[in-house]
């Protein structure tokens, strides 16, 4: 509305516009190109930290170490409130959980119809003549009203239950789940996941000493974890490890305690802030609908064209 009024005033003749009643307006454009210049590589945390905080204030968390069973707090880390302190909506979290449990499911239930029963087991002939027997007319022994007959409107599998949630709802599902974990004091930040031993009892006693729950999810940026914690989590079924790129709502809700490294917190904050503030939604939707403009075969780099 404001822009349309400005265009209307600009089209009027000069003698019809009263300068005393026209306010001076300055149009300020927010240019986010330097921050999101390269869309293929998400920006780092220093670039993301330039974004202003929309709601709330920064949160803080202790940085612990796993070198000993006692709680050793070495530093304090600031957390961005747009990722770790948003007002949670349970409907968004529930929608993400339903999507994750159903999008990769294939329903293989299949009931044979009349034609399929005739093809598999026969019985397609008319059981008796149309008139003269005193019985009701029948066309086939595989009709739906017969025992061992075909099924009408039954499931025709295999049928994929795949569907996709909107991009914004998936991003908000992560931020809302992290905020719930933060409020419940179920998020712990450590400097690294290095353990002094590969004994499972050490990690169990450490979790008991620090008040962690029986189900713990360890998150780091790399998918190759240290040797000791990998061996320990293999022996404990309720403690698992996961890289940042695999973190999801369903895994966070299944595990009560979430233990992240400092670099995992920084990478997760950068990725989520980038997703919350990206401005290429129309281009991404156009790419999904129309596909890429140019197609190049990656295999030609390894296999030359004859």
Structure description:
- The structure is a single chain.
- By secondary structure, the chain is of the alpha/beta class.
- The chain is 35% helix and 12% strand.
- The chain starts with a helix and ends in a 16-residue tail after the last helix.
Q: For the report, how would you describe the main beta sheet? A: 6 strands, mixed
Fraction in beta strands: 5-15%
The total of helices stands at 11
Q: Rg from C-alpha positions?
A: 31 Å
pLDDT averaged residue by residue: 83
Question: What is the N-to-C succession of helices and strands?
Answer: HHEEHHEHEHEHEHEHEHH
Strand order within the widest beta sheet: 2-1-5-8-6-7
Q: Structural class, from secondary structure content?
A: alpha/beta
Question: What best-fitting shape do the alpha-carbon axes yield?
Answer: elongated
What fraction, in percent, of the residue positions are helical? 25-40%
Number of strands: 8
> Would you identify the regions where 5 or more consecutive residues have pLDDT less than 50?
1-14, 16-40
Distance between the termini: 61 Å
Structure characteristics:
6-stranded mixed beta sheet; 306 residues; two-stranded antiparallel sheet; alpha/beta; 11 helices; elongated
Short summary:
The chain is an alpha/beta fold and about 300 residues long. The protein is about 35% helix and about 10% strand.
């Amino acid at each position: 509305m404001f822009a349309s009024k400005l265009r209307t005033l600009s089209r009027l003749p000069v003698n019809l516009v009263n300068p005393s009643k026209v306010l001076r307006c300055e149009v300020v454009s927010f240019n986010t190109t330097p921050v999101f210049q390269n869309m293929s590589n998400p920006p780092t945390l220093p670039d993301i930290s330039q974004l202003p905080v929309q709601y709330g204030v920064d949160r803080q968390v202790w940085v612990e170490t796993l070198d000993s069973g006692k709680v050793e707090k070495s530093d304090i880390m600031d957390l961005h409130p747009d990722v770790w302190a948003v007002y949670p909506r349970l409907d968004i979290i529930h929608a993400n959980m339903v999507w994750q449990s159903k999008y990769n499911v294939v329903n293989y239930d299949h009931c044979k119809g009349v034609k399929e029963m005739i093809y598999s087991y026969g019985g397609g002939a008319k059981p008796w003549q149309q008139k003269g027997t005193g019985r009701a007319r029948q066309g086939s022994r595989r009709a739906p009203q017969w025992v061992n007959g075909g099924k009408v409107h039954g499931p025709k599998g295999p049928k994929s239950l795949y569907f996709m949630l909107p991009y914004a709802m998936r991003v908000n599902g992560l931020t809302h789940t992290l905020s719930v974990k933060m409020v419940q004091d179920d998020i712990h930040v450590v400097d690294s996941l290095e353990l002094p031993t590969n004994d499972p009892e050490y990690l169990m006693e450490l979790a008991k000493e620090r008040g962690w729950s029986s189900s713990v999810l360890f998150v780091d940026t790399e998918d190759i974890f240290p040797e000791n914690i990998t061996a320990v989590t293999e022996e404990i079924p309720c403690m698992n490890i996961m890289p940042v790129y695999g973190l999801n709502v369903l895994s966070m809700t299944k595990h009560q305690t979430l233990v992240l490294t400092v670099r995992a917190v920084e990478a997760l904050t950068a990725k989520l802030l980038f997703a919350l503030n990206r401005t290429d939604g129309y281009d991404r939707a156009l790419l999904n609908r129309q596909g890429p403009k140019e197609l190049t075969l990656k295999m030609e780099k390894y296999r030359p064209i004859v």
